[in-house]
Structures are given as structure tokens and as C-alpha cells.
């Protein structure tokens, strides 16, 4: 048994090295995800292996964790086949015969497919991806009882973060007070807020303007109204026929957009110009960046944030804003009706994930420690990286050309070139952007 444990430690080290070198390749990531989906298994753990260095080292000796390691090894081995990568992961070398027989064809039992369609009547569209209507207290409780609503911590005004992770920020007294005010006719009907999580092709939201009907097929997050939901449940437990009409605001935002929208309401401030610009879904460049940000396997997606404040003040992994990436895509790629948004998004993900894999410490492991001496992850240099991606698109030798270009650059903060170009400016004008584009596209 001790020998087997040692072999599994060797297996984890081998997988970590493979992920480190080849984990940026989209075909490999997709293949691994499909393997878990085909077994009716959640994909959040394989995502963690690819995006979190040394995640495998946190696995325990439990049967569930060992099985996960087994299935991930099978998935990775299958993903590497046909890729001209000289690596083989034979699970028979690392697991017992019994484990092999139990897990090689393991599949969770299929759960009956549920219809998660929700229809709202008398709905008015008030802006792009935003609607308003009303909802009775009975409908509110019914949606919750039927598991149509998900409380998303990341959409909240101020989620509570502890050493054990994120937990609900629930004031136990507040729902009781709200319920009492409802029954006494003193509760003001402030809007409940739902968000249909925007994950591209995984949800469907249809607005029939003629009949004022909104049909939703997808995940509905309760963005704002958790206390009022509990209060409504408490109220109907006392008086099942009690009727209360809640105003309802429904949005169709990504997780980041929804969270920022709620925080904006909490601060009672207007949207910042940079945020409003980034939420315009009529602009192809914004849709492409949304696609990138929603790729859970991508390392690049994790460093894109909606506002500069999230990067400069909080420093929680963010390095560049959505608008910088969107602006650079608009300036350097041809965007028209023939543009394949998904294909372009996948290319930029592959390019940036590979670039970041070349400089893991600077972009992934410890990005902020070198910012006093290096500009390699300065947010304004991402104008250059995306411009370079447009120059190398379609070139079969793009990886080598990218490596050569990066090696040729002196990223030292003392390099006078950066000051001459103007990358330290708080707001880059067209002239500075063009200088950055020109410098990085010279390969």
C-alpha cells in the first residue's frame, strides 16, 4: 500500500508537469471536461486542476479523491492522444486491479432531465438585457421551493469570506422584521433582483415584446432579495393566502457584471463609464471578451476584471480590465458579420494562456511581487499582447515567434523605452496605443 501511495504521488507530479506544459491547449481542456460530463460528473474539480497550480497535492486518501485522480488521469491520457505529445499515463501502473475495474467505466447514474423553463407575464424591457415585472409572494415561494432560484455568493453586495471559504451574509433578525412589516402593511415593495447567468449557449432567454412575455431556460441567480425571500416564506407559513406583490427586476448578465451591478446599487452611484462601455452587448469586441471571461478552464480569463479599482486596490488576481482587451480587439482584428466570435475567442484564449504559461510566476503564481521592478504584467502592456496575437493569428509557428518576441523585450521598469512610449500614463490616448501596437507587432 505504501508503494502504491508513492506511485500516486509520482502520478500527481507527472500530471502537474503535463498541465504546466500543455494545459493551455483548448482541445486538451475541452476533452478533459467532456470526459467528466460523459460520466455525469461535475467539472469544477478538473477545472481547478488545470487553473490552480498543485491542486492535486490537496487530495486526500479518501475513496472519492482517489477515484477523482483515477478519472482525471484517464481523461488527460485520452486528451493527449493524437497530439504528438510523448506522454502516456497508464492508470494500471498507479492503481490496484480492483480500483481499475471499479472506475474505468464509472458513471454516475443519470438524473431525470428537468424542465427549468420559467415564464413571466406582463414584462417590460427597460434596457439591453434588463426587464421589469411583478411577482406575487406565492410565486416567489414556489420558485424557491422548486429549486429554480440559486443564491450566488459572488453576486452579493459584500459576501462574507472566512478561512473556510465564502458563506451567506444573512442577518437572522432581518427576515423576521421584514415579515412583520409585510403583515402590518408597512413594508415598502423594493424590487427583487433575478439574474439569468450569461454563459453563452447554455441558457435561453426569449422576450416576446408583442405579448410582453419573458421565457427563461437557464440558471436564475437571486442577485438581491435573500432576506426578503426568507421573510416571504415566513409570512406564508403564518398566512398561506397572504398576497404581497414584489416588483421584480430581471437581468441577463455574466457573474462579474451582475455582482458589480448589485454593488453599484449598494453604493448608490452611477455606473462608471468604463463599466457601461464594457456591458454594451451590441459591440462584438465585448461579446468576445465575455466569451473569454466565461471560459472556466482559461488562466487568462481569471485575470480580467471589469474595473481598474478591482486590480489597483484589491489585488485579487486581476491584471487587466475588460475594456483594455475589448478596445485592443476592436483596433487590431477585423470585426464584421463574417466574424466567428467563438473561434476568435478560442484563439485569443490559446494565445494568452500559452504566453502566461511561459511566465507563470509573473502572471499566475505571484504576479504582484515583481511589479516594482518589471512591467511584464502592467495592464497597459496587454494592449501589446493582444495586438501581437492578431499579428500571429494563422501562423503555424506562432508559439516560437511569440517566445522569440517575449525574450527580445527588456521588461525592466528602468527601461527608458516604456516611459518614451507612455505606458505609465493613467489614461492612454490613441497615439500611445498605436506606439504599443507597432512595437509588439514587429516580429
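^ C-alpha cells above, recovered residues below v
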Amino acid at each position: 500500500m505504501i508503494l502504491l501511495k508513492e506511485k500516486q504521488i509520482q502520478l500527481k507530479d507527472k500530471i502537474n508537469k503535463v498541465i504546466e506544459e500543455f494545459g493551455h491547449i483548448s482541445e486538451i481542456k475541452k476533452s478533459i471536461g467532456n470526459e467528466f460530463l460523459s460520466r455525469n460528473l461535475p467539472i469544477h474539480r478538473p477545472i481547478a486542476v488545470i487553473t490552480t497550480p498543485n491542486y492535486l497535492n490537496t487530495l486526500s486518501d479518501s475513496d472519492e479523491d482517489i477515484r477523482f485522480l483515477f478519472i482525471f488521469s484517464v481523461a488527460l491520457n485520452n486528451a493527449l492522444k493524437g497530439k504528438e505529445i510523448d506522454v502516456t499515463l497508464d492508470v494500471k501502473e498507479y492503481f490496484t486491479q480492483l480500483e481499475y475495474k471499479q472506475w474505468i467505466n464509472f458513471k454516475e447514474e443519470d438524473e431525470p432531465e428537468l424542465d427549468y423553463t420559467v415564464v413571466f407575464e406582463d414584462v417590460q424591457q427597460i434596457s439591453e438585457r434588463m426587464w421589469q415585472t411583478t411577482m406575487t409572494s406565492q410565486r416567489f415561494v414556489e420558485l424557491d421551493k422548486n429549486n429554480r432560484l440559486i443564491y450566488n455568493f459572488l453576486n452579493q453586495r459584500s459576501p462574507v469570506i472566512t478561512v473556510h471559504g465564502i458563506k451567506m451574509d444573512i442577518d437572522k433578525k432581518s427576515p423576521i422584521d421584514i415579515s412583520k412589516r409585510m403583515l402590518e402593511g408597512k413594508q415598502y415593495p423594493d424590487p427583487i433582483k433575478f439574474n439569468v447567468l450569461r454563459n453563452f449557449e447554455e441558457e435561453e432567454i426569449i422576450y416576446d415584446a408583442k405579448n410582453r412575455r419573458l421565457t427563461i431556460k437557464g440558471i436564475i441567480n437571486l442577485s438581491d432579495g435573500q432576506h426578503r425571500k426568507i421573510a416571504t416564506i415566513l409570512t406564508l407559513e403564518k398566512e398561506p393566502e397572504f398576497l404581497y406583490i414584489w416588483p421584480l427586476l430581471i437581468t441577463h448578465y455574466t457573474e462579474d457584471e451582475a455582482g458589480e451591478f448589485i454593488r453599484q446599487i449598494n453604493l448608490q452611484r452611477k455606473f462608471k463609464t468604463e463599466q457601461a462601455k464594457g456591458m454594451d452587448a451590441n459591440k462584438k469586441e465585448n461579446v468576445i471578451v465575455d466569451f473569454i471571461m466565461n471560459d472556466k478552464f482559461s488562466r487568462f480569463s481569471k485575470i480580467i476584471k471589469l474595473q481598474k479599482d478591482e486590480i489597483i486596490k484589491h489585488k485579487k488576481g486581476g491584471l487587466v480590465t475588460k475594456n483594455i482587451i475589448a478596445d485592443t480587439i476592436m483596433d487590431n482584428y477585423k470585426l464584421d458579420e463574417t466574424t466567428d466570435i467563438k473561434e476568435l475567442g478560442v484563439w485569443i484564449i490559446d494565445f494568452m494562456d500559452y504566453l502566461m504559461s511561459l511566465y507563470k510566476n509573473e502572471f499566475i503564481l505571484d504576479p504582484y511581487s515583481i511589479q516594482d521592478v518589471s512591467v511584464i504584467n502592467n495592464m497597459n502592456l496587454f494592449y501589446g499582447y493582444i495586438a501581437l496575437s492578431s499579428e500571429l493569428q494563422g501562423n503555424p509557428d506562432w508559439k516560437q515567434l511569440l517566445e522569440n518576441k517575449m525574450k527580445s523585450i527588456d521588461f525592466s521598469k528602468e527601461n527608458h523605452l516604456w516611459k518614451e512610449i507612455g505606458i505609465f500614463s493613467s489614461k492612454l490616448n490613441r497615439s500611445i496605443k498605436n506606439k504599443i501596437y507597432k512595437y509588439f507587432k514587429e516580429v
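The first helix runs from residue 2 to 22.
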